[in-house]
Design a protein that fits this description.
This protein has about 190 residues and is mainly alpha-helical. It has 7 helices and 3 strands. It folds into 2 domains: about 60 residues; about 100 residues, Iron/manganese superoxide dismutase, C-terminal domain (minor pseudopilin epsh fold), CATH 3.55.40.20. Helices cover about 50% and strands about 10% of the residues. The chain has a 3-stranded antiparallel β-sheet with strand order 2-1-3. α1 runs antiparallel to α2. The two termini are about 30 Å apart.
Length: about 190
């Protein structure tokens, strides 16, 4: 069953995200969905044709993680946007953040600082499912560096396409707009422990 791009049109008009920026971002996401399906189709055909283990097969196997994670991380990103209410200070997530970081303010300072680092990639608040611990993690490329056994809670895209149309090199301004639009209910719903 092929993957289908989800509709995030409700995000158009978010404060701090121009229509041009968000629609370009949707188009990029749709490309990841299309390419995930293409890679899966070609790999399936190569397998049927007895060409597993060929260089083409191997390279597409390596490419799959890039396309799939590009699709899925964008879905997490878009789904944790569009919020209008602050994090519930007495909620499960807030309590976990306070226990791990000392305060919500300290966690936010660390998350924003991680996002402001030079480079391209993602910033993800991960929950280590076995231990329940929380980590703010920098992910450079979609297909590498994800901590095994961890659940993404809050995902922020810090590739240039996520902010340069509106903010140029002012990444901190983009991060501020991101924080104004977090859908904390979606983030909290991802929390396992």
């Amino acid at each position: 069953m092929p993957y289908t791009a989800r509709d995030y049109a409700a995000l158009v008009g978010m404060e701090g995200f121009s229509e041009t920026l968000i629609k370009n971002h949707f188009t990029l996401y749709q490309g990841y969905v299309t390419n995930t399906n293409k890679v899966m189709d070609i790999l399936g055909q190569l397998l049927k044709d007895g060409k597993a283990g060929t260089p083409e097969y191997a390279e597409l196997k390596r490419r799959f993680g890039w396309e799939f994670n590009g699709m899925r991380l964008h879905e997490y990103y878009f789904e944790n946007l569009g919020g209008k209410t602050p994090m519930a200070k007495d909620g499960k997530l807030a309590k976990k953040i306070q226990a791990e970081f000392g305060s919500i303010e300290e966690w936010e300072k660390d998350y924003r600082s991680t996002g402001a680092m030079r480079g391209i990639g993602w910033v993800i608040l991960y929950e280590d499912v076995p231990s329940g611990r929380l980590f703010n993690v920098w992910i450079n490329e979609h297909d590498v560096s994800h901590p095994a056994g961890c659940n993404p809670l809050l995902v922020m895209d810090v590739f240039e396409h996520a902010f340069m149309i509106d903010y140029g090199l002012k990444r901190a301004d983009y991060i501020g707009a991101f924080f104004k639009n977090i859908n904390w209910q979606a983030v909290e719903s991802r929390c396992k422990g």
